[in-house]
Specification:
The structure holds two protein chains of two kinds. By secondary structure, chain A is an all-beta fold. Chain A is built from no helices and eleven strands. Chain B is about 0% helix and about 45% strand. Chain B has no helices and eleven strands. Classes of the chains: A mainly beta, B mainly beta.
Chain lengths: ~110, ~120
């Protein structure tokens, strides 16, 4: 079993819908939680960054971390066709350098 | 340049050939990472440098893989005697500070290696 599990999708929703993306993890030492967006044939780019539990909002994006359930989420409001990409969750323990990524969820927003 | 630059963008190698992939991080960035991303998968950690010191190479899959960053800036990932299972996108990332808790990782566009 992988340390970080993420449904690969694909997920297809109409423009304007609310999108929910999720990851579960098994390592209770994870403290830093991130969401990256990766367009086709491009490198990942950081969307959201959260330390420990709680919520964080940035424009149309909201990240939630529930450490008791070992579950993190990314919500996208008013989704746009330009949001079509692969979304990767990533996490790391305190003091560690490397990130552990999920498999990525491929998302398509249909106009 | 403004971002992390990787070359070559695409490389086709015959099985058994040696390849070298170059990463030019953002100027002044202390940390440099190499990740391997297989098709349809998330990136997997290979190795980490803090300046010129290779502090973690636990993700290198075999002794055929070697990475260096001799002057603390440009890094090279070398794969000897390539095998078909080495086919993947190799991503380089850099960060201004040391550790994911202290700064954003900036990724390059990757070097796509295909081994025939």
């Amino acid at each position: 079993q992988k340390e970080v599990e993420q449904d690969p999708g694909p997920l297809s929703v109409p423009e304007g819908a609310i999108v929910s993306l999720n990851c579960t993890y098994s390592n209770s030492a994870f403290q830093y939680f991130m969401w990256y967006r990766q367009y086709s044939r491009k490198g990942p780019e950081l969307l959201m960054y959260t330390y420990s539990s709680g919520n964080k909002e940035d424009g149309r994006f909201t990240a939630q971390v529930d450490k008791s359930s070992k579950y993190i989420s990314l919500f996208i409001r008013d989704s746009q066709p330009s949001d079509s990409a692969t979304y990767l969750c990533a996490m790391s323990p305190q003091g560690a350098q490397k990130l552990v990524f999920g498999q990525g969820t491929r998302l398509t927003i249909n106009p | 340049g403004a971002g992390v630059s990787q070359s070559p963008r695409y490389k086709v190698a015959k099985r058994g050939q040696d390849v070298a992939l170059r990463c030019d991080p953002i100027s002044g960035h202390v940390s440099l990472f190499w990740y391997q991303q297989a098709l349809g998968q998330g990136p997997e950690f290979l190795t980490y440098f803090q300046n010129e010191a290779q502090l973690d190479k636990s993700g290198l899959p075999s002794d055929r893989f070697f990475a260096e960053r001799p002057e603390g800036s440009v890094s090279t990932l070398k794969i000897q005697r390539t095998q078909q299972e080495d086919s993947a996108v190799y991503l380089c990332a850099s960060s201004l500070f040391a550790g994911p808790g202290t700064g954003e990782l900036f990724f390059g566009e990757g070097s796509r290696l295909t081994v025939l």
